[in-house]
Each structure stands twice: as C-alpha cells, then as structure tokens.
TrEMBL record:
Top-level taxonomy: Eukaryota, Viridiplantae, Streptophyta, Embryophyta, Tracheophyta
Compositionally biased tracts (Polar residues): 11-26
Sequence intervals crossing the membrane: 43-60, 413-433, 440-459, 471-497, 584-613, 625-647, 659-678
PANTHER family associated with the record: METALLOPEPTIDASE M28 FAMILY MEMBER, VACUOLAR MEMBRANE PROTEASE
Family named by the database record: Belongs to the peptidase M28 family.
Top-level taxon in the UniProt lineage: Eukaryota
Name of the protein in question: Vacuolar membrane protease
Organism: Anisodus acutangulus
Length: 915
C-alpha cells in the first residue's frame, strides 16, 4: 500500500487537465508542497506471500488429498461400491507375493479372480447375463513402433487372461456394443503390487458385482478384462485385441493403471474422441483428471506406457486411462504395499467408475469404435479437460478452445498495439526494458537453482537427498528459484527505472525531483506487471499454434490478471501520471489462476521427485546431477511463471531485504540438513532402486565364445554411486566403470561386481545356445540361426541393423515375426520375448543381410566391435551367492523391476559379425 502522502499526488492526477500543464500554472510555492512517496507496506507483501502459500496448499489438499469415506457392504447394498469389500481382494492378491508372468503365484492369482467372479455370478440380477472366458493366448508379436517400442518387437506366448462380459439377458444386440474395462493381474518380480495393479483388479471385481445388478437396463455390454503380460510389454492387451472375438465388439476402452500407490486415481489420457471424457465429466461424483498430465505423458518425458496405447493405436479405440500417482517413488519396488493404500483411494475410483459405467451403459450414442474421422486425426475435435478442486470437471472441444484463444490473442495484440501507438517511442522502449527484466528473471532463477543441482552431489553421498523428505525441495530449489527470479527482475527494474526517470523528468520539468523519482518507480512497477501479461500472451500463442491442451492455463494466467488490471488500473492516456497498483488488483487477478494450477503444480513436483528413483534407464550413462537439473529447471520455471505478477509489487516496498534473508535462511537450513545427514535420502519405505543379478557371460571380449565367466552384478537406476551400499554388503564387491555390461535392452556403464562364489547356483545346461546353422554368401546373403533358450521363457535378442536388413523368427513351423520393414534404435532391432511356463524355448531365425553391408559395426579396435546378434536369457531364480547379497542388502534399497531389466539370474551370449 502507498503512504498517506500519496493522496496529494492522487489529487493532482485526478484533474481533467494533463497533470504537467496544470502544475505549470501553479505557483512555485505550491509545486514545492507536492510530496510523493512511492512505498508499499511490508505487511501487505508478507500477507500476500502467506496467502499464496496457504492458498496453494489448501487447493492441493482439497484437489488431491480429499478422499471420500470408505464404505462397507451394508452401507452400499447390492448396487453400490464398497471399499471394504475391495480391500479384501487386494489383501488376497498381495499375500501371494510377486506374481510375474510364468510364476506359480500368477496362476494362483488367476484362480482367485475366477473364484471371485463365480461368487458374482451367484448373486447377479436374474435379467443379466454373466459370461466368463479363461482365455489362453497363443503366440503373437507386438510390432508397435511408437514411444518406448521404437526398434522393438515384443513377442509373447502361453499367456492366460480372464474375460468377464456382463450384458442384459433380453437385449442380445447389446453384446455387439461393448465398453471395455481393463487392467493387469501380473506384477514385476520385485513387488507384491498392491498399487500396480492389484488395486485395479480389486476395483474391477467390485465394479463387476455392482454392474451385474444394473445391467438389465443397459444398451451395451461391459467387458472386464483381467490380463497378464502387461509388465512385459503390454502383451495382454495386444493378445486380446488381436486374438479374442469379443474385441471386435468394443466401442470404448477404459484402462486402470498405477505408477504409485494410493491417493486419487485420475485421468491422464483421454480420447482421441471426446465422448468418454464428456460422459465421465457428467457422471463422476469425484472427478479427477488433468490434460496437463496427458501433455507431459505424450511428450515422452515419462518413459512409460500402458495398455491404453494398444487400445488407441492398434485397435483405434477412444476411452480413458486412469492411474494412481501418489507415492510414485515406490513404483515397482518392494514398498508397493497394501499399507500405503490411503483409505478412500479405492472408494474414489470405484464410485467414479460405477457412475460412469451406469451412464455409459445406458447410452445409445457410443462411438463407432474406430477413431478414424479426420477431425480426430488432426486433433481439431479432441477434448480439453481439467477438474476444479476434485469437485467439478470442465470439458470443452479443441475447436472451441482455438476460437477462444484466437479471440483473446487478437484482442490482446490490438490493445498492445494501441497502447504502444499512443505511448510512442517511450512506451516501446519501456516494453523492451520490461521484457528484459523477464529474461533476467528467467536467467537468474534458472541459474541459482541449477547451481544448487551441481552442489548437492558434492555435499551429500546421494545426489538426490530429498527422496524420502520431499519438503526439502522447497528450500533446496524453491528458495533459490524465488531469490533468482526476484534478483533478475529487480536488475531489470533498476534499468527500466533509470530510463523512466529520465523520461518523466523531461515531461514534467516543474515537478520536484523527489516526485519525479517516485512517479518513475510507480511507472516501472506497472510495466513489470504488464510484462507478466506479455509473457503469458506469448505462451498462449505458442500453445495455440501447437494445439497444446494445457494452454487453458496460459489463458487463465493472461485473462484474469489482464481483466483486473484493465478494470482497476489501466488507461490509454499517456498524459496521465501513473497510479500505484492496488492490492485488490493482484487478489482479483491471481485468484482463479492459482485455483486452477497450484494443486497441479505440487502434484507434478511430487511425481517428478518420486520418479528420480528410477531416472537412470542405463545406469551410469548420465551425470549424477542430471536429475537435480531437471527438477531445478522445472521449479525455476514454475517460480517465473506464477510469481511474475507478485514480484512486481516488491520493488517499491521495504520487503526486499526480508525476502532475501528469508530465502537465504530457508536454503541454508535445507542445505545444512542435507550435509549433516539429519534426514536420510532413502528409508525402508522409500527405497533406492537397485538390481542384484547373477551374470553368466559367454560373450568374451571379441564377441566370440569362451569359457563361462560369472559374477554377481549390483547396479542402480537411482543416480549416485554404490559405495555406501557395498560397504554395508561386503562380499568383495568392486565398483566403477571398468566392467560395463550389455544387457541388450540397456547397458550398465557404472556398477559393482563380485566373483565370490559366482561359479555356483547355475549349470552348464542352463546356458542358452545360439549358433549359425547355414550361411549363404552371395549377392543376397542369407544366414540361418538356431536359438535354444534352455530354461528361460523370458529373453531379449539384439539384431545388428547395420548388417542385417530384415529377419524372420519362427517357433518350429509357426512364424512369430514375419519378414517386413523393421524399425531400429541406435542401430539395433530388439526382440523381447516373454511367456508362460509352456512357452517355446527353441527358435529359428533367418537373417537377410543388407545388400551393401560393409561391416559398419566391425571396428579396427576389437574392444569396440559390435556383434551380429546378442542374446540375454533370464531366469527367476535366486542362487545362493545372490541370496547372500540380498540378505545383506541395506534396508534402504529395493530390487526394481521393469520389462527390460534382467531377473536375478541372466545369461549373456552373442554371435560376432565375422563368425
């Protein structure tokens, strides 16, 4: 707020005549009595910051942490959804332990689901048909090329799924229009999978019980697909779409997933047709979904995929993709446990889904199934969606959004053009200098926070010491980002102030120097505020051009502050002296933008922090500071985007020093907590992701066969060295980059190894055989290769794409991978195979060499020679030396599983180019 003395200036500027001409008519004594003090109260600034912090946390808590009360079976009756019943299914499935593809535990999980379905059949409505199909998928190959699947062929065999179709008994045509609800029963080998995805399976069972009481009034059937093989490359969804007769009847696909455990299950993918998300918005009791998450996921920033990709790309279906995203640091580790399922999480998803299915099931306007219309392809008719406080969901079409965006952009440009034309040269220079303040704000905010990212590995044994205590990020990165943003903007403010002081002194020569200085400060403040409008206008233009769904946030951050400024502050008259910005302008302008974005921001930061546990897809391939830099950049961007208006209020206040002291103290305390080890980077409940693998290596230095060499390998997908872990384990481990490992799907450039007792726990008969059976060396060279994976039904094979143009893979007479164009990544095409206990283990390949192959991969230095084929076979067996290491593994570590990582016993073999 301005000092009382400001009132004198306000009276002067309120006259109808231009202030400068009016003052020229005053006596010199009256001019000398004009006093102006441009200063805002520190308490107002403090109150604004407190309001922002408290309001942001309130929005996040209400939007993401406010869960419905869990209900019991008696409360909901036959037709409702009960979390108490659902949690019993989760308990039963998690008690089986890890149940990956090919395990006995997975067979038990399938039997449990079948028994639960039989119970549902016994209590279903008499006018409803319940069909159950234990579907055994024959061999198949997933040739998708998008996202994570570039350069890969995912082959599967001997997979079992459960299909459950519920339809009205006296409306047989309903079975030709089905809604698919899908999730997977299998887990990775390292976790019992309470979140991923026993919670999803349990919700589906309770939904099926509820739907079986309502479906007599449906116009369509509901298919619940409990698939297996998802964790090995979306194989369950692929086999259903390509092999099951029910797949032809599906019109809408709903996928339930988890990349954490607990919290709200929100929509993070929808479309391409908008019918499903529009229906969900109308039906859901507690809607949760953000197109921001969809934009991030589809950008490739999150290296993951779900069954929804199969349903969209392969089957051409539209629908919804849900996921739990709380506690994402426990994803695919031992800590994906039942105890982390927050009460109300299952009730939230279940009630939303039941309401959606009841509305969708009675609808007569389901999509055709194939999203092939031109508008769907071009993205012009897709939906933009977001929820407000988890209570209301807003959905509108991209076409309507473009019209709104274009209108706002044109009006904004018109206003800016008019303003600059009337302001003349001075206005254009002021705009340029205020834009400079924006650039300096971004540079300093990023510079300060990124500097911390480089410092952390030097003061802590873990480069990401905030995993178990995410609140540390506020001090470690948030405080430097805010300090940097203010510092950069203040430097720009001082440059702008210097220019405006000269300009005002020329225009108002009769004003006292003190008044001229204060007028310049007020004008500079207003230009900084308007620079924030320009920042968001540029982002809206870019977002509109590229049809980015989350551009609605740029619209909100532009329109509401601009409206508040235009309504309470703006004037197009250059002759009028600047007035102080009103605090109410900030309150009105920022209330809606913070309401729409603050909860999302905290949720995304929390997800990003948790994802740092598995940042290293190829351990040792990235510098230790990379994860910190990514997080620092994200937080710095948030500070610059959201605080640009608020920071403009500080420069003419006495709050500058308190702000600097507060941010420095917050950073210093956080850094001291890290350096002194007050809180550990990892705990038993938030563990570091590691892998312990007994490796039997048959490749040799030149890719040629040698006597088996074995060792125990320890590596981590979490950034940082393993020195502390190895000291805790003992067992003769050596760490470094001296012994890189090629696991075909990824490489370990930094790891630890030990030869202690490594020659026991495996047999010569376990070693896979890969050999050349026939080689025709002519203009069209063809090579026949046989592969025997012995005891393994999970393996990966790399084919050198520089030498081999095409190939064919067979299981006896059955063709698994046909001849045809193959994509490649980094010069390799990867076959990734997984199957059940009865999956084949002997294969034949025909390699068609490139016409002009020149041994591109054959280097003069034999140590860098790339083989023609490289094979890894996996066995889910814990050998005695591996068991010893696992028993001594620190409690803050956990095995980490994914489709491309080896199991606890892996065999490596290869064929050189010059075989």
């Amino acid at each position: 707020m301005c000092d009382k003395k400001m009132r004198q200036r306000s009276k002067v500027s309120a006259q109808s005549n231009p202030p400068s001409s009016r003052i020229r008519g005053e006596s010199s004594s009256n001019i000398e009595n004009v006093v102006l003090v441009a200063k805002r109260s520190n308490y107002v600034i403090l109150a604004l910051f407190v309001l922002v912090v408290y309001g942001t946390w309130y929005v996040y808590q209400h939007q993401f942490l406010n869960l419905p009360r869990p209900l019991g079976a008696k409360e909901v009756g036959k037709r409702g959804f009960s979390e108490h019943e659902t949690i019993e299914h989760v308990k039963a499935l998690t008690q089986l332990g890890p149940h990956p593809v090919g395990s006995d535990a997975l067979d038990h999980a399938l039997q449990y689901v079948l028994q639960a379905i039989e119970t549902i059949k016994e209590t279903t409505h008499w006018e409803v048909d319940v069909e159950v199909d234990l579907f055994h998928a024959k061999s198949g190959a997933n040739l998708m090329v998008g996202g994570l699947f570039k350069g890969k062929t995912l082959v599967y065999s001997d997979l079992n799924h459960i299909g459950l179709r519920i339809s009205p008994k006296y409306a047989p045509e309903a079975t030709e229009n089905a809604i698919l609800v899908s999730s997977h029963i299998d887990t990775v080998f390292s976790t019992e999978g309470a979140g991923d995805c026993s919670s999803c399976v349990a919700v589906m069972l309770e939904l099926a019980r509820g739907v079986s009481q309502w479906a007599h009034g449906f116009k369509s059937a509901v298919i619940f697909l409990f698939n297996t093989g998802e964790e090995e490359g979306l194989n369950g969804a692929h086999s259903f779409i390509t092999q099951h007769p029910w797949s032809d009847t599906v019109r809408v696909a709903i996928d339930l997933e988890a990349m954490g455990v607990g919290g709200k299950s929100g929509i993070f993918q929808a479309g391409p047709q908008p019918w499903a998300i529009e229906t969900f918005a109308l039906a859901a009791k507690f809607p949760s979904g953000q197109i921001v998450a969809q934009d991030i996921f589809k950008s490739g920033a999150i290296k993951s995929a779900t069954d929804f990709q199969v349903y969209q790309e392969l089957a051409g279906l539209s629908g919804l993709d849900f996921a739990y995203a709380d506690n994402t640091a426990v994803y695919h580790t031992k800590n994906d446990k039942l105890k982390l399922l927050t009460p109300g999480s299952l009730q939230h998803l279940g009630e939303n889904m039941l309401a959606f299915l009841l509305k969708a099931g009675t609808s007569t306007d389901l999509p055709e199934g194939k999203a092939t219309n031109s508008r769907g392809k071009s993205g012009q008719d897709t939906a933009i969606y977001f929820d407000i406080l988890g209570t209301y969901m807003v959905v509108f079409r991209q076409r309507a959004a473009s019209m709104i965006y274009n209108s706002v952009i044109l009006q904004s440009l018109l206003i800016w053009t008019t303003s600059l034309f009337m302001g003349g040269y001075s206005a254009m220079v002021s705009l340029a200098l205020s834009s400079l303040s924006l650039m300096l704000m971004w540079i300093c905010a990023i510079g300060f926070s990124v500097l911390v990212a480089f410092v952390l590995p030097l003061v802590s044994y873990s480069p990401i010491p905030f995993i178990s205590s995410p609140w540390l990020v506020v001090g470690l990165f948030g405080a430097p980002a805010v300090l940097g943003a203010f510092t950069g903007q203040h430097v720009g403010y001082l440059i702008l102030l210097k220019y405006l002081t000269k300009t005002i002194s020329r225009r108002n020569v009769n004003l006292p120097f003190a008044v001229q200085d204060d007028l310049a400060k007020l004008d500079a403040e207003r230009w900084l505020y308007k620079a924030g409008l320009m920042q968001w206008l540029v982002l809206l233009i870019v977002g509109n051009f590229y049809k980015i769904g989350s551009s609605y946030l740029a619209l909100a951050w532009l329109v509401f502050p601009a409206f508040a400024y235009g309504f309470l502050e703006a004037t197009l008259s250059p002759a009028r002296l600047p007035k102080p910005l009103k605090t109410v302008t900030l309150l009105i302008g920022l209330s809606v933008p913070f309401l729409l974005s603050s909860g999302i921001i905290i949720h995304l930061v929390a997800t990003l922090i948790g994802s740092a546990v598995r940042l290293e897809r190829s351990p040792g391939s990235n510098p230790e500071w990379l994860g910190n830099v990514i997080l620092a950049l994200f937080i710095a961007a948030i500070a610059c985007l959201t605080l640009v208006y608020l920071l403009s209020y500080i420069h003419i206040s006495g709050a500058k020093v308190p702000l600097i002291i507060t941010t420095c103290l917050l950073f210093g305390i956080s850094l001291a907590v890290v350096q002194l080890g007050v809180v550990p980077p990892f705990t038993e409940d938030t563990a570091r992701a590691v892998n312990v693998v007994h490796v039997v290596d048959m490749t040799g230095a030149n890719g040629r066969k040698q006597e088996p060499a074995s060792h125990i390998s320890l590596f981590s997908t979490t950034p940082g060295n393993l020195v502390k872990e190895v000291e805790h384990i003992g067992e003769g481990f050596t760490c470094g980059t001296d012994k890189p490992l090629d696991f075909v799907t990824f490489s370990v450039k930094y790891g630890c190894w030990s030869d202690k007792n490594a020659n026991i726990g495996w047999h010569e008969s376990d070693i896979p055989l890969i050999r050349v059976e026939n080689d025709t060396k002519d203009d069209n060279r063809v090579t026949h290769v046989s592969i025997d994976t012995k005891v393994s039904t999970r393996w990966t094979l790399g084919i050198n794409a520089d030498e081999v143009e095409d190939f064919q893979l067979k299981d006896g007479p059955e063709e698994l991978v046909p001849i045809g164009d193959k994509s490649n990544a980094d010069g390799w095409h990867i076959i990734q195979f997984s199957g059940g206990k009865n999956a084949p283990k002997k294969f034949s390949m025909i390699l068609f060499w490139a016409d002009n192959h020149t041994h591109k991969s054959h280097k003069k230095d034999s140590n860098t020679e790339q083989p023609l084929l490289k094979l890894r076979t996996d066995v889910d067996r814990i050998t005695s030396p591996t068991e010893t290491v696992l028993e001594k593994l620190p409690q803050w570590c956990s095995l980490f599983g994914k489709s491309t990582s080896p199991l606890t016993l892996a065999f490596l073999s290869s064929i050189p180019v010059d075989f």
